[in-house]
Amino acid sequence: MSGFHGLFIPGPTNMPFGVRQAMDIALEDQRSPDFPAFTLPLFRDLKKAFKTEKGQVFLFPGSGTGGWEAAITNTLSPGDRVLIAVFGQFSYLWADLCARHGLIVDTVDVEWGEGVPLDIYAQRLRDDKAHAIKAVLVCHNETATGVTSDVAGVRDALDAAGHPALLMVDGVSSIASIDFRMDEWGVDVAVSGSQKGFMLPTGLAIVAVSQKALAMQKTAKCPRGFFDFADMIRTNKDGYFPYTPATTLLRGLRASLDMLFAEGLDNVFARHHRLAEGVRLGVAAWGLELCAKAPKWHSDTVTAICVPKGFNSDDVIKTAYHRYRMSLGLGLSKVAGRVFRIGHIGNINEIMMLQALAGCEMALRDVGVPVAAGSGVAAAQEHYRATAPQFQLSKVA
Question: What is the pTM for the complete model shown?
């Protein structure tokens, strides 16, 4: 069939042609004498994406889940206590992974559609006089519900309580797309993945670690092998890896970073916010509600949209896929059948988001949801027009 399939899930995301081209190379010798000339600047520049000067960044073959495992096994021991809020599928899975490693998980159950409850975190930390909590976990952007939480606010709560716990952040669907400041916010471990804001295929777990967290390796007793920071540190310092790296993905990552820096990270964040606002205005014009309960929770990388009672969101997704060659995100776990998701992350622009809204409108109308044709598209159009960059028009003679 002609044209492109529309990919509007929150990851994997659309790959820029330049990234695809950078990976279309012959396989290379990962132990060659000149390999470090490529990898050492890559390690250095990755730190800029996390906005850290003091931390160290590791690249593991894997996904964000592997990054989670690296984070906890290198810093904690079975029996250690961690604090985490669960308000979506991915925060739940991180808590589950901690439990599987023998950690004691203090779970704060939050309504899906809200984010990290700073008041409850602050109270738990104040009450923990013995400092039994060894790590505080934050899902910066909960992909399942389209909710972003306040990482800086969690750091403030830790500091106000004088609590020494590590601050760990799942930034899989936020880093390189939503403002993230590792050093400024005192983040000790930040986990990301290649398939979201970095605009690559799945296959790299990208983990940034503070010096405080690195020092925890000396006492951490969780079993680890493949994800051992010590093995990475020993070989990365010379530009190599302890095992075969995903060299083609590394070449793509180099191209991705160059694109992000050429645009400017702050401009990248502003672009995501602007495009996300257009989508949210489109949803409002349809008369539908977001899964996110309030504007303070709105995600700039994914919007989760509730279908009216009596409808199944899976029908919208299947209709969009089969009739209009467009992929939308499924509702997961507690919100299965209740929401569909539009991903607006990575390599996106205004026209792509209008395409997504138009396809959603057709699919919604096809399954009987009463939305006015063109309403969401028009609302987003007006927002994009009003906020578009200005330029000088040619004068007519």
Answer: 0.96
